[in-house]
Amino acid sequence: MTDVTVRPYRSTDLEACRALWVELTQHHREIYQDPSIGGDDPGRCFDRHLAQVSPERVWAAECAGEVVGLVGLILCDPEAEIEPVVVAAQWRGRGIGRMLLGRAEEEARRLGVRLLTVAPVARNVEAISLFYRCGFRLLGSVEMCKVLTPAGAGCWKSGLELWGHLFDY
User: Fold this and answer.
1) Cis peptide before 78 (omega within 30 of 0)
2) 74, 83 in Cβ contact below 8 A?
3) What's the pLDDT tens digit per position in 95-149?
4) What is the pLDDT of residues 5-26, one digit of tens each?
5) Cα–chain-centroid distance for residue 125?
6) For the segment 69-109, what is each residue's pLDDT rounded down to a tens digit?
7) Judging by beta carbons within 10 Å of its beta carbon (0-12, 13-18, 19+), is residue 113 exposed, middle or buried?
8) Model confidence at 152, in pLDDT bands (50, 70, 90)?
9) Which of 95, 84, 88 has the alpha carbon at shortest distance from 19?
10) Which of 92, 103, 133, 164 is the most exposed place for a label (fewest CB within 10 A)?
């Protein structure tokens, strides 16, 4: 495999990073069977994310001049959240996600962050497994949802148990 490097985001990465964001959104649409996730133009959500975290807190994984992954770090002193972690589908399974997480963690340590979090969607088993392998083994919070419209009621799976309670996910 050609060498992959993780480097700071560049303004010339915008379209490639938008495409990665769209790929992540599409994955969420598929695992939740909900084509409305991310809205009509999910690539523009990357623009809002970039404005929120600032380009200095975004890194790209690059191989042979191609951006193949992306990671961001949202600071909430004294804590931080890694969001997003995206690796292009054809590049997964090569350690790039681990490299991206390592870069974000390195920056969080440098900044004196006390607690580093990730918040994958409940059905993203691959992401949860990666985060677990990379040392994210504490459950700091649980986000609970309630469907309020008929449109979102049919796409949930059952069978996740926590503290004796059965949840749909």
Assistant:
1) yes
2) yes
3) 999 999 999 999 999 999 999 999 999 999 999 999 999 999 999 999 999 988 8
4) 999 999 999 999 999 999 999 9
5) 12
6) 999 999 998 999 999 999 999 999 999 999 999 999 999 99
7) buried
8) low
9) 88
10) 164
What is this structure's pTM? 0.91
CB neighbour list of residue 157: distance below 8 Å, 6 or more residues apart: 123, 168, 169
Task: Please state at what angle helix 14-32 crosses helix 42-53, rounded to 10 degrees.
Answer: 120
Q: Quick one: how many helices (H) and strands (E) in the chain?
A: 4, 7
Which residue type sits at 20?
Answer: L
The DSSP element (H or E) to which 52 belongs, if any, is helix 42-53
Specify the residue for token string 């292009």: 88
Would you call 98 exposed, middle or buried from its count of C-beta atoms within 10 A (0-12, 13-18, 19+)?
middle
Answer whether 68's CB lies under 8 Å from 4's CB: yes
Nearest to 87 by CA among 95, 79, 78: 95
Helix (H, G, I), strand (E, B) or coil at 64: coil
Token output for 153: 């009621």
8, 59 in Cβ contact below 8 A?
Answer: yes
